[in-house]
């Protein structure tokens, strides 16, 4: 197994750093999956992380000027590494003004992602700063756990309101309750509600619009077309998990949407020109 990548463009480096920082706010640990064309950051929905799952996809050519990898074999040309995103984020933050940054899979006292940055220097000699980020190699027998999640058979799909507005609302609600009900319909309306013995608060959003998924989810379209446009699909979630998603968001998406499977799961999607992030939050009783 070999992996080596190099970033020269400062904008690409900073964008990559923001993506890693976003992921570090969502999970303490995840799997970094390397293929010849893409990088994936994956969190599978296990009970240990509260059932939350994540899938982040980056096209390597949009970030790296050089990208070379050899997987475990010619047949399985992939590398799966368990990483702590916070450690990788810290390493990248310290080298944001670098002339170039190399990321390489190395073997030190343990497998590492070595981040080596050439920093600007007034003298003729270059300064190189190196960070070794420990990783664990995921055996191929476990790869099946880190495949792209299938699109849920949702009841309602809706565009999200401005994420900053949504975050401000949820920050206030968090002080009143640990749980929040998200509900939406096919008329572009979304409500965020909390109810306790002492207080009931609802924030209404309207005219958000509903994405058209076309043939890719024809089964969903069939269900949606027969659905009353005013009927709400709802799901009750842990408010901290939703807040975590909004607080860490640094991708600045061109589109942000939400699919709701009634009383089952919230599927949040952020789309950027060169990054897509999916986040699944399961319902709580």
Brief overview:
This protein has 285 residues and is α+β, with helices and mostly antiparallel strands. It has 5 helices and 18 strands. Helix 3 packs antiparallel against helix 5.
- Give the uncertain stretches in residue-range form: 215-222
CATH topology of the largest domain: Proliferating Cell Nuclear Antigen
Biggest β-sheet: strands ordered side by side in the sheet: 10-6-2-3-4-18-17-16-11
Mind summarizing the main beta sheet? 9 strands, antiparallel
- Shape assignment: elongated
Radius of gyration over C-alpha positions, nearest whole angstrom: 21 Å
Family: Belongs to the HUS1 family.
Pfam family, one: Hus1
Subcellular location: Cytoplasm, Cytosol; Nucleus
Biased composition (Polar residues): 215-226
């Amino acid at each position: 197994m070999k992996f080596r990548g190099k970033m020269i463009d400062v904008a690409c480096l900073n964008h990559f750093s923001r993506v890693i920082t976003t992921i570090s706010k969502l999970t303490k640990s995840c799997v970094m999956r390397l293929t010849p064309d893409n990088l994936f950051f994956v969190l599978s929905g296990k009970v240990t992380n509260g059932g939350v799952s994540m899938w982040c996809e980056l096209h390597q050519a949009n970030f790296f000027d050089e990208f070379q990898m050899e997987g475990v074999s010619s047949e399985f040309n992939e590398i799966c590494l368990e990483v702590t995103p916070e450690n990788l984020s810290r390493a990248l933050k310290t080298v944001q003004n670098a002339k170039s940054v190399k990321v390489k899979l190395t073997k030190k006292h343990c497998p590492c992602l070595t981040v080596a940055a050439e920093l600007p220097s007034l003298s003729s000699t270059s300064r190189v700063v190196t960070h070794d980020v420990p990783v664990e190699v995921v055996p191929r027998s476990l790869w099946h756990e880190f495949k792209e999640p299938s699109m849920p058979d949702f009841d309602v799909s809706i565009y999200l309101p401005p994420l900053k507005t949504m975050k401000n609302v949820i920050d206030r609600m968090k002080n009143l309750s640990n749980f929040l009900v998200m509900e939406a319909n096919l008329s572009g309306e979304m409500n965020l509600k909390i109810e306790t013995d002492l207080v009931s608060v609802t924030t209404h959003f309207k005219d958000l619009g509903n994405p058209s998924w076309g043939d890719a989810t024809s089964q969903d379209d069939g269900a949606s077309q027969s659905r009353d446009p005013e009927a709400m699909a709802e799901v009750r979630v842990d408010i901290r998990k939703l807040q975590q998603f909004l607080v860490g968001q640094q991708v600045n998406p061109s589109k942000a949407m939400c699919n709701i499977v009634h009383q089952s799961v919230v599927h949040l999607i952020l789309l950027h020109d060169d990054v897509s992030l999916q986040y699944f939050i399961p319902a709580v009783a």
